[in-house]
Amino acid sequence: xxxxxATEAATACSLQEGRTLTAHVDLGxxxxxxxxxxxxxxELGLLAVxxxxxxxxxxxxxxxxxxxxxxEGFCVATLPEALDLRRGGILSPILVLGSIRPESLPxxxxxxxxxxxxxxxxxxxxxxxxxxxxxxxxxxxxTGMGRSGILLDDLGACLDGIRxxxxxxxGVMGHFSASEAPxxxxxxxxxxxFQGALAQLRDAGIAVPMAHHANSAGCxxxxxxxxxxxxxxxxxxxxxxxEEAREAGLKPILELTAxxxxxxxxxxxxxxxxxxxxxxxxxxxxxxxxxxxxxxYPRALSNRAQAGFKGRTYPVVGQVSMDMLTVVLPEAxxxxxxxxxxxxxxxxEDPHSVQATARLLxxxxxxxxxxLNRRVLxxxx
Length: 381
Ligand SMILES: Cc1ncc(COP(=O)(O)O)c(C=O)c1O
What we know:
This protein has 381 residues and is of the alpha/beta class. It has helices at 3-18, 27-41, 51-56, 59-68, 79-87, 105-110, 120-126, 152-165, 185-203, 216-220, 243-247, 354-360, 365-370, and strands at residues 21-25, 45-49, 73-76, 94-96, 113-117, 136-142, 150-151, 169-173, 210-212, 229-232, 254-266, 271-272, 278-279, 284-289, 306-309, 312-317, 325-329, 340-344, 377-380. The strands form three sheets. Strands 2, 3, 4, 5, 6, 7, 8, 9 and 10 form a nine-stranded parallel sheet that branches. Strands 1, 11, 14, 15, 16, 17, 18 and 19 form an eight-stranded mixed sheet that branches.
């Protein structure tokens, strides 16, 4: 086989392999989720949070769809995530939420990225380099989240340094710690602090073109008074669990399906998987799927989760292993290699929805989709 043929065959082969486990991402519903969010957020500009590969949904196709639908900008966590978007043709403003080292300013500037100032020390580090390597800066204020941002007690001491950086100061931001909590006292307190800090900056003659404190839940619940923008992730992916998300018609956009690699009848007493944690109580149809914890399907779902086939669900049995998992169905069900089963459903009511799976794992939907890694083929449609 010539090297060219070998490369072609290898590409075809890897695509073939990849197709066995696929995250289908409904970009039409993504655009409808954006429209639903806009109805609620009215005049606010929206920055789509597409860090962590758009929470596992595939950052570039998601960002392209949102850019076509008129989003005002994007947020990512790291410089490589921002550069991936630029390489993917994204031209809209991109804000890097994480802490960027001063030595990365040239590449950030060359790629027209906006950076977050994550502390008073970070401001001091970046300030001398910004005139030579211009970037937009968003000042993060720690209004109560307690993990990053300039402490409000330190803001007064930073005012001269901030004023000197104008007009590079594009925005001022905070982050809610519990915007989805039924008790909104904490959210209101954070907003009050944010508004106080904005007034302090304006009194000091510092222009604040953009102010954004809200994430999805803060935006959906209207904790945005006086802000110009909101940074929304989970609502766009249709996985926000606040009541207002349902009222706005937001729906999940990701479905995970896997191809059946083996379907066999096993007699009563047969054991399945590492540790033989499942013993067939009677003859059953045993199906093996090419999906395991190395793909981001947690081992903690062993003997607990369900998988869907033709409108019904069936139990995932035995230990989920690195690359495979097993499901049992009644003997009479006709299922064969090449058929597909659904491991994560888009219907929130299903026992194998992202939300139900998160509950099984005592976690949040964010963690379930973020876990899906690069072995999982993304099929944006
Ligand atoms: C700083 C910041 N802003 C906004 C968001 C978006 O949050 P959500 O997905 O809840 O809208 C995140 C997500 O983790 C974040 O870290």
